[in-house]
Amino acid sequence: MSISASLQNALTGLTASSKAAQLVSSNMANVMTEGYATREIELSSAAGAGSGGVRVDGITRSVDPVILADRRGADAELTEASTLSDYMTRLERAFGIPDDADSLNSRINDLETALISASSRPDSEPRLRQLLDSAVNLTDTLNGLSDGIQSMRLEAEKAIESAVGQLNTKLEAVHELNRDITQATVAGRSTAALEDARQVTLDAINELVPIRLMQRDNGAVAVLSAGGQVLVDSTAKSYEFTPVNAIEADMAVSDGSLDRISIDGEELTASQMSQLSGGKLSALFTVRDDMMVDAQSKVDAVARDLIDRFQDSAVDTSLLAGDPGLFTDNGALFDAADEVGIAQRISVNDAANPDEGGELWRLRDGMSALTQGNGGNSAILQAGAMVLTEQRSPSSTGVSDLSRTSSALASDVLSYFGVARQNVEADLSYAASKHTELTLLQMEGGVDTDQETQKLLLIEQSYQANARVMAVIDEMMDTILRI
Prior knowledge:
It contains 12 helices and 10 strands. By secondary structure, the protein is mainly alpha-helical.
């Protein structure tokens, strides 16, 4: 081998060692950087006519696509479970537990106690006032629960708008990164940093909508939802969502008062929406269109049960056909065909409320009584106390038709949300455990500092060997020149 060939070999070795040392340094420095994948140098022999040494073929990212896909699935599952758990926990907290003084169950018990107290002294204005206050507190609680449910629906509506905006931004970013990676690949430049950035962006998309990838030419990827809807390929999809400024209990997608996501002005069908399920975005739609609607139906069932019990002429003998009882639908007779949102509209009959121009004695003598009766007559008050404890089958479809008292119905509703919260927390716990295990598994394939340190020792030895060759050549050249 000639001196010049030996010099060339040593020089390429030094170059390769220097590049390898830079990669080790980069790996060690980015061990905790999100989306960073271990860099590996690709080398090959440069042997050929009149040449030799080692050639740097490129830099590769070390990523296990199977583990990465599994971890992304766990990410989406965790985000969905976390979103549902957050709303369900807040929902349960709003309803309270049976022992809470301001819970729905306690408010009904307070009404029953006030009815019993008033029936023992029907001529006592303070006791009648206490009865009125108990009834008002109960309707206020029902109104507040319904308002809170609709507020959470509106909050989910605004969160959907934000999520769709984030999704569009991230999809466009992936499209641009695909273009940059393709250009760099064609030009023979390293794409590792661009791929890191794309992985972080894809992870962010995956939390909103679970994704899967398909490889395209020159390092580009097509992004599909887990359900098969194309998100990014030759172009990036642009989704649209038009939020409302207020949500009422009777508003739904089915009647057009609430929107789904649209593309180019055309709303997605239910089937197309299901292709986006599994992440935060679908969880928010579940909150708006299912979880909170179900909650409203249950609080409506309690409100309707109260109205039905006290709208009975067997309880209030003063009532004529079309007259509302103690509890009304915004002052009017309740219409069974208009149950949705009744908890938001239920109110105490103004005829018995002095603050609204009524008279307290109507609590004793009947809502439709024209004149004050005998102060010692407790029949209507006793009937009211008895009807609350009467075993009745609710007429609402939002709860089971099992016969129970008014208080038991409220307790069942509260228990339902307690169980529902426990179920979503169990799903969250499972998703969190799965996410933790897969994240750790992915990290095991990431930067190993011990391995990188060993590489550095080998690189140092290689560098020293090539440097020694160049030193020997230098000595030989000096010797030749002195001859």
